[in-house]
Amino acid sequence: MKISVIVRQVPHQESVLKISKDETWIDEENLVFITNESDSYALEEGLLLKESQGGEVVVCTLGPERAGQVLKDALAKGADRAIFLRDDSFDRLDSQGMARAFAAALKDEQFDLILLGLQTDDIGNAQLGPILAEELDLPHATLVVGTEMLGRRVKVKQEQEGGWFQHIEMDLPALLTIQSGINKPRYASLRGIMAMKKKEIRDLTAADLGLNTSDLTPDQVLVRLYVPPKIKDTAFLEGAPDEIVAQLVEKLTNEAKVL
Amino acid sequence: MENDTAAHVPTIFYIFAGIALCCFLYNLKRLFTARIGRPEVRSLRPWEVIRNTLYFGVLHLKVSSRQFGYATIMHLCLAWGFITLLFATTVDFLAARGLFLNILPGKDTPWFAALNEIGGLLLILGTVLALIRRHSSIKPEPLPQDALAGRDNLFGDTGVLIFLLLLAVGGFLAESARLAIEQPATAGASFIAYPLTLVLPSDLWQSLQPGLWWSHAILALALIALLPRTKLFHILTGIVNVALTNTSERGTLRPMNIFALMEDPDVDLEGLVLGAGKVEDFTWKQLLDVEACTECARCSSVCPAYATGKPLSPMKIIQAIRHNLYAPAMDDPASMVLVGELISPENLWSCTTCRACMQECPVLVDHITAIVDMRRFLILSEGKPPEDAAAYLEKTAQQGNPWGFPRENRLKWAEDIGLEVPLMADKQEADVLYWVGCAGAYDPRNQAIARAMVAIFQAAEVDYAILGKEENCTGDPVRRMGDEYLFETIAGQNIEKLSKYSYNRIVTTCPHCYQTLGQDYRQLGPAWNVVHHSEYIQELIRQGRLKMDGEVTGRVTYHDACYLGRHNGIYQSPREVIAQTLSWKGELVEMARSHAQSFCCGAGGGNMWYEINQGERINFNRFDQAVEVGADTIVTACAFCMIMLDDARKVRDKEESVQAKDIAELVVENLAPAIPGLGKREEPARVYGE
Ligand code: SF4
Ligand code: SF4
Ligand code: SF4
Hints:
heterodimer; A: alpha/beta; B: alpha/beta; Fumarate Reductase Cytochrome B subunit; Fumarate Reductase Iron-sulfur Protein, Chain B, domain 2; Rossmann fold; 4 domains; four-stranded parallel β-sheet; elongated; binds iron/sulfur cluster
């Protein structure tokens, strides 16, 4: 079975975040970057499937130079080879652009399964998986908390609201976005770290992928990033119920401007 | 005398003796099974070998133990009885051949006859004491009791004792028969055998004599022939092992030079041995340790993990390794996978590396390095740390502390209360570099200790500075967990920072930092002068730089941290400091297990970072020991001990009645004159800490 796992690099959960001067991103200096949490679960799921079904696991990331570390970590844990999408024009892609880049990189490889974390710990919009599935014209399932191979089909357990689960089956090839907690990610052994040095990491640029500027121009732009100001303004409305309702409507219309 | 010549002994005896000797030599092959181990260079000086043999082999220095009074007497009887009889038999043998007659005593030389009797008596006494110990209610729980066979030894433990008993009793009877027949003038010196002759008529002795002599002779020869296959083999292996032990290096983890290994382009990844997963992955000396084990169970009796029902018995670990070592030699093909089958990972993870086992082991077995080598195998080779620990290892790698708090916040303990602490980066040089440690930087309880330490530096006007955000975890937990790769990585970062500045010494408030900076880093290069704060405070007091006005009342007990006491031999400094803080109404009381016999708090060896969900928690047990002696203050000198005991205090609902304090806090509270804002006179509680 040929499995691709997409891993992404994000700031450590405990980081002390500071907003950058231009207020469109965070200050990356002094930050510690690590593998996105749900991506490490996706990687583990890929490795477990490879162990039980045979085949290979190819990890893929997109990002600046430093993001290469998440590929190395994945290779040390047992992935077979890596693809690194690296290009200045990949800076600040939106989910659509990212999906186009990953799709271009993965489309010719005939993967049976593409796995990635449900969402990233930085932006957290959980869009890449579904859009990428559309780009590649694959069936997909999100919020996966369990997988079972049934020959050329896969049965997955999806988490629903309120403690419910849903089991669905689909044909391979397919794409799954994995929820944290589905397994127990392994620790890289030294043997693995040493073996990692001999494994292939293939760099691909926008040109290699045949992407042009219009493919990569974001439809979605982050305009301003700021810490919501803390405003605490409590007013007590008094009087008979009718009067209170009237006052409330007035305030919601004129002060809060939500009606 | 004249009829006891060589001619008196039948020739057939010599044939038997020859066969026995051949069997002995053949069976001795067990000793050499240790050869399958990896090479290890011993830099032993001859005088050390002689000293070790004498101290630990002959004089039984390590057999004698406060904690094992009965067993000490029992073993001294057995060993000295055995040695005496061995000596006597050798002399007899030589005398019977007419050798050295001018210097050697004869069978009937009164003192020699009496010595013989004493030897026999000791041996009987020893075996009886041992049999009682094994088969009555006084048997220590971890002591094995396989009756007549077992654990890779012929006759088991009880069988070999009965063997010895028969030998000693038979010896007396044979001697009685001889005395009855020969009636030497000095027979009275044989104070047991001679009175025995009077029990039976002499013609009966006459007829019994050949039978008694032969049975005794056969038994003795059988013992020689089979000795290497019985438990008594430890007489040989024990002596060889202690002779070759480098006592100053016991318990020192071996460096693995992983960085060099990783740069080696021709390294054979498949054949690479990382840690010990199979018996042949240990060094020959570790395997000799294993051969020497006497199965006395002292190690397990004192092991805190064993005592609290964790799945660890250090003796069983040693025996499991031995089982695999001997399996081929004992014609047992069923050797099992060592780590994973014979020894479960939980066994290995339960060890706190507290060294209690090594302190008591009579034959100087090095349990800790064996256990850590197997942990190294689990982590480096298999990538399988204890389940909850992987996260802490990763956090240590990412943020430089096992809690995973941001490096950015490493100075918050001081900044939060507006405390100005000088940084090495600003000063470049200082007399003392104060190593705050991760606990001091991030753990609220230990932050209070770091602040107390600053108060002490200020009070004594010490020229000091800290590394601040440049400081990293020293790597003690990761190293003891077996992650030598991560240890080398973060140690390298620390060494680089430490080498940038100039200072005379490093002061640390944590014995784990003390051990790592002072001992472990030495293996990687530079050696610094590292002092534990108990020693440093003691020095400041002695120099008159800290003036104490002891006002502590009540019963104070001190918990010896393993990495301060047993690992580094510091017992007196903290006690001397505590004494300075006591008023006439205060007293220092010792727990039943203190000094070298101290009982670990449960945090060492990385155990701070994962939980073995079996048995009782070690820290609760230790806390209860303090309550048992009526302590109302428990004093610690270790960051981890503080966390563990403070936690136990809360869970045991003793927050009101029992305090847990670090010696630094105790000192600050009793300074004269008190520092405004600090210590007792302003406000009694830890104002500097909250
Ligand atoms: S070091 Fe301590 S915990 Fe580990 S086996 Fe020895 S006595 Fe037990
Ligand atoms: S290892 Fe040492 S203390 Fe433990 S049983 Fe063996 S000889 Fe006794
Ligand atoms: S934490 Fe304290 S008691 Fe426990 S192992 Fe370390 S030094 Fe010993």
